[in-house]
Write a structure and sequence with these properties.
about 350 residues; alpha/beta; four-stranded parallel beta sheet; three-stranded mixed beta sheet; 13 helices; about 45% helix; globular
């Protein structure tokens, strides 16, 4: 087991990474202060891991709420099922909420924890590659709105993150590839050596080689933890972690939540950011080719969605959280491993990129 630390003063917490961690009750129990627990999971994960986690909490007041699986259900209406359970079971503000699942469950359970009685502890137990390397770390919690992804939420840090790499054995290939997109993102943003490692080891990741996966998860979590420690609430450098997300969130919203997986949309979004960076003269064409190649090798889309126009992209990007004073701020690349936040781009070149990727 590897243990990393997210350094946030009195809100610091550990990230545990290793195989079969869900079979170590002491690991979970030491982060539960009172014997009140609500497990939030979904109807895909519950048959696989819910009883395993509940069995470790047999002398606790432990209940579970099972939500429908998918980004389409990441809404305020579905979130109310969590509050209904908390209130009907008369859980106090000493309850610990456990998020058992992927990024959607982590976001929803974390947001419920941030709001219930103005804040209760929660623990992230991510079961997908994407959630283990990205969404479970850093305290971003949110639900979607029909007009924009993750527009209703809060920054709220967990007590710990328990990333059991054994859970990835039950992940389908499409979900695995979606997680690999976020892994590649860390190399593109600030870790050129990691990007080179990924180019050399992408097949091992696709084949679920345990050592390769463990290394990729640890490196990704460390890269993210370092950024979050510098900028918890995304006032500056943390925005770099959104490489491809302005374009990608537009795809997710425009195509209907869940039709494109998050990592699929972000992969195309990162290619769009790279394409614009080339048009601006910041990124070399051979670097763009390397980025496209690794996404293809990972089994990720490299073209925009069918039926989505450049104007739709612009309309949806206009409600992105990084818009300031009516200007869309983008995360772009000055090289592989050199991401920057900029509004200093030619709108005509942005239009060319959107047109190139429209379906």
């Amino acid at each position: 087991m590897k243990t990393l630390n997210v350094a946030l003063a009195d809100r610091s917490y550990p990230i545990y990474i290793g195989e079969d961690l869900l079979s170590q009750p002491a690991l979970l129990q030491k982060h539960i202060k009172r014997k009140e627990v609500l497990i939030v999971t979904n109807d895909t994960i519950a048959p696989l891991y819910l009883e395993k986690v509940k069995s470790q909490l047999s002398d606790y007041h432990c209940e579970a709420v099972i939500l429908p699986d998918g980004e389409a259900y990441k809404t305020l209406d579905v979130l109310n099922q969590v509050y209904d359970k908390l209130l009907s079971e008369r859980f106090s503000r000493q309850v610990t909420i456990i998020a058992l699942g992927g990024g959607v469950i982590g976001d929803m359970a974390g947001f419920a924890a941030a709001c219930y009685q103005r804040g209760v502890p929660f623990i992230q137990v991510p079961t997908t590659l994407l959630s283990q390397v990205d969404s479970s770390v850093g305290g971003k919690t949110a639900v979607n709105h029909p007009l924009g992804k993750n527009m209703i939420g809060a920054f709220y840090q967990p007590q710990c993150v328990i990333a059991d790499t054994s859970t990835l054995n039950t992940l389908d290939d499409r979900q695995l590839a979606s997680g690999i997109a976020e892994v590649i993102k860390y190399g593109l943003i600030s870790d050129y050596d990691f990007f080179e490692w990924l180019e050399a080891n992408i097949e091992q990741l696709k084949d679920r080689d345990p050592k390769a996966l463990a290394y990729a998860i640890e490196r990704s979590c460390q890269d993210k933890a370092d950024v979050v420690a510098k900028d918890e609430t995304e006032q500056g450098v943390r925005a770099l972690l959104n490489l491809g997300h302005t374009f990608g969130h537009a795809i997710e919203t425009g195509m209907g939540y869940g039709n494109w997986l998050h990592g699929e949309a972000i992969a195309t979004g990162m290619l769009m950011a790279a394409d614009l960076s080339v048009r601006m003269g910041w990124l070399q064409t051979d670097e763009l080719s390397r980025i496209e190649t690794i996404f293809k090798q990972a089994g990720l889309p490299v073209n925009g969605p069918q039926g989505m126009t450049a104007q739709q992209f612009m309309d949806l990007m206009a409600v992105d959280k990084k818009v300031q004073d009516g200007v869309i701020r983008l995360v772009l690349l000055k090289g592989i491993g050199q991401a920057v936040i900029s509004d200093d781009y030619d709108p005509a070149e942005l239009q060319q990129t959107l047109t190139h990727f429209q379906g």
